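Sample 3 of the quickstart, ligand glutathione:
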Amino acid sequence: MSVLLYGNWRSLATYRVRVALKLKNISFQETMIDLPSGEHFGEAFNSINPQHAVPALNHNGALITQSSAILEYLDEAFTETPLLPKDAVGRARVRALAQVSIADTHPLTVLRVRKYLATELSLDDAAQTKWARHWLDLSSVALEAHLNAKGSATGLFAHGDTPTLADVALASHMIGVRFFGANTAIAPKLCEITERCFALPAFSESEPTKQPGAPAAA
Ligand SMILES: N[C@@H](CCC(=O)N[C@@H](CS)C(=O)NCC(=O)O)C(=O)O
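Result:
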């Protein structure tokens, strides 16, 4: 059995997949794709993901892209340590929480969007940061409301007392929040739950700054 992950140290989408692989105890090898130099637009990576984005997963020759699809695939193909609840309503809630970050927020802050803001719309670093913070804050507020909703299934983690795909996504959201210096004070429950995540080896070992290629800490 071989599981190959194509990722990048800084990529939040790759982070999500790395965490799920570790939570599920799946051994894997990661190849780092150098995004700043544009390696993802090269011929070799084009045959892996013609969308020119990481992550991509190769499981025994099957290529899967998009972190959401990869996470769902891993949960189906490797049934130990399920990351989705047993009940349909619970699964819908976990997926909905995850999509706030994966579908609605993270895409607004990826490299190609920031490049477009800089080159086509002439937004400087400060304006780009303002952009990222705005969207991150909006999602933090929404997530906080979901997590605190009366009668919700929020427990020690986003859904119940063990990590699910929602926590994987929330942790990646929080790393983005910290990276761009967005507001953490508006989401105390989100902070509490993600701190609990970061205390687990699967989440902490996967952190961008701990990956090969990351700049050494000052
Ligand atoms: N929705 C995709 C996002 C993939 C994505 O945009 N990945 C970023 C890194 S987090 C990337 O490869 N960026 C390269 C670029 O924007 O040029 C997913 O969740 O997998």
